[in-house]
Amino acid sequence: MSTTLSSPNLELLQEQENADNKVFGFWIYLMTDAIIFGTFFAVFVVLLKNTTHGHTPQSLFDLSNAFIETVALLTSSLTCGFAMLTLKQGRIKQTILLLILTFILGGIFLALEIKEFLSFIEIGATPQSSGFLSGFFSLVGLHGVHLSIGMIWMIVMMLQLATKGATLAVTTRLKLFSLFWHFLDIIWICIFSVVYLMGVSL
Amino acid sequence: MMIDQSQAKKELLDYLIGYGFSIALSLIAFGVVVYLKDYLSIGVLASILALCALVQIVVQFVYFLHIRKSDNDGWNLAALFFTGIILLMIVGGSGWVMFYLHMNMMPELPL
C-alpha cells in the first residue's frame, strides 16, 4: 500500500471493510440456519416410517410437481446471480428487471408448494395425522417460510434500488440477499433428494 | 463499482456453467427415481441420489456462492466446514441411534 492515505480514502476503506464484515456476519447466520434445517431433516428421516397405516410418501408425492418446483427455483437462482452481475456493472434498470423475474419464479415455486399442501390437507393428510406428515410439513414448510421472507426482502430491495440507487449500503444488502437466495436453493436440493425422491423410493 | 468486461464475462459464464450442472444433476436424480426405481436396489438408488445431491451442493457453492479460500482469509470456508461437522453429528448421529432403536423395538403390528 502507499505510505500516505488521504482521509476520504481511509474512510472509503473503512466503509468497505464494514461491508465485508456484514457479509461475513450474514454468512455465519446462514451456517446456523443450516444447522436448524439439519435438525429438521434429522427429525424427518427418523419419523419417515411412522405413517400409522395412513398416507405414505408413495401415495402422496407427485414428482412432476416437485420437478417443476426444482426448475423454477434453480432458474430463479440464476436470474438472481445475473441481477448481481448487472448491479456490478451499474445497470440498475436491468437489475430491477432481473429481480422481478426472480420474484416471479419464486412466486411460482411458492404457489406450487401451497397448492400441494392444500391438496394434501384436502384428502386428510394433515400435519397432525402422523409422525411422517408432521416431519414433512415442518421441514418443507420451514423452507417455504424462508422463501416467503426472501420474497418480501426482494420487494424491499427493489424499492431501495429504485429510490436510493446503487449505494454501498444497498449493494451490500443485495449481496446478502443473493447469498440467502442461493442458500435456499441448496436446502431445496436436499429436500427434493431426501423428502421426495427417497420418500417415493422407500 | 465498475468491473471490466472480461471479468464480467467470466462471472456470467460461471453462473451459466453452475446452472447447467444443476439442471443436469436434478434431471439425473429425478430420472433415476422415475424410470429405474424398479430395477435398482434401494442401496444403489440411495447412493446415486446422495452423490447427485452432494455434487450439486458443491457446484452451487463454487459457481453460485463463489466460496473461495482467498476471501476473508478463509474464515467463511472454515465456518462452512465447522457447520458440516455439526450437521454430520446431528443428522448422522440421529439416524444411527434411531436405526438401532427401531431394530430393538417390537415389529409393527398389522391393523
Question: Keyphrases for this structure?
Answer:
heterodimer, A: 202 residues, mainly alpha, 84% helix, elongated, B: 111 residues, 3 helices, 76% helix, cell membrane (chain A), oxidoreductase (chain A), Cyt_c/ubiquinol_Oxase_su3 (chain A)
How would you describe the overall organization of this protein?
- Chain A: Keywords: Cell membrane, Electron transport, Membrane, Oxidoreductase, Transmembrane, Transmembrane helix, Transport.
- Chain A: Residues 24-200 form the Heme-copper oxidase subunit III family profile domain.
- Chain A: It is a multi-pass membrane protein.
- The complex is a heterodimer of chains A (202) and B (111).
- Chain A is built from 6 helices and no strands.
- Chain A has 202 residues and is an all-alpha fold.
- In chain A, helix 1 (7-47) runs parallel beside helix 6 and helix 3 packs antiparallel against helix 6 (168-201).
- The longest helix of chain A has 41 residues, at 7-47.
- Chain A is elongated, with a radius of gyration of 21 Å.
- The termini of chain A are far apart.
- The model of chain A has no long low-confidence stretch (mean pLDDT 92).
- The model of chain B has no long low-confidence stretch (mean pLDDT 87).
- The N and C termini of chain B lie far apart (67 Å).
- Chain B is an all-alpha fold and 111 residues long.
- In chain B, 76% of the residues lie in helices and 0% in strands.
- Chain B has 3 helices and no strands.
- Chain B is flat.
- Chains A and B meet through helix 1, helix 3 and helix 6 of A and helix 1, helix 2 and helix 3 of B.
